[in-house]
Amino acid sequence: MVKNEGDPLKRVIVCTPKEEYARAGNRKEHNIGDLGDPAIAIRQHDALKETLRAFGADVLDVPERAEHPNSVFTRDTAICTPQGFIHLNLGLETRQSEGAWMAQILKAQGKRCIGEIKPPGTVEGGDVILSGDVAFIGRSVRTNGEGIRQFSQIMTPMGYEIRVIDLPDTILHLDKALMVLGAKQVLYCNELISPYNIRGFDGIKISCGENTTANIICLGNQEVIVNRSNATVTGLLRDNGYIVHDLDLSEFAKGMGGPNCLIMPVERGV
Fold first, then answer.
1. Are 47 and 260 in contact (CB under 8 A)?
2. Are 69 and 255 in contact (CB under 8 A)?
3. pTM of structure
4. Contact (CB, 8 A) for 262 and 252
């Protein structure tokens, strides 16, 4: 399934935004800044799916979960590992049933559940980045210490070294500050990620800001997807030899999400 986020993307699960994403009743409860324009959001999501398929990834597009506007952000709902998937208990109260929703989808695809994060533990997929024999996990407002303990119990027997990175409350998930680009290369925010955190990796350093973030999609083979507003990162990655697909995903930024939030990688491989 997935051993390293830097390996070529083979299969993903996405969720095209339709009625639910555009009509969140209480935006604060759902952590949505502004409601997206449904027609524009669908066009932007279609462009994302087209780019994923053009790279060669198989894209499974699942319907939105009723009354769950955040279900478009599939990344947070499960973690696929080399041995199967982890059923997550999400940290945002209004999203907690999405773990069971995605578990059903993955089981229907023939994937095996190898463990479950149970209350009071919480883990969201945006806080987890797998890189070969290292599993980075962010301790954040969405992923707590008990969730990290349970996650470690599942992953350590597979040979993963667990590296916990503490995040300030202003950073929703680890993937805003860190992303794997290849076997041993990462993109990272120097204000949030220390050299010790990424020991053994080559790093491309950025200074995070409102529109400058490590939240990108690594397609593999030196190709990435970057939100068009993230121009500094686009230029930096191109200077380092990457093929960058800069897509307008502004409607999802309104929901506090970036490119990586929109895909749940099921399979990566060489």
1. no
2. yes
3. 0.95
4. yes
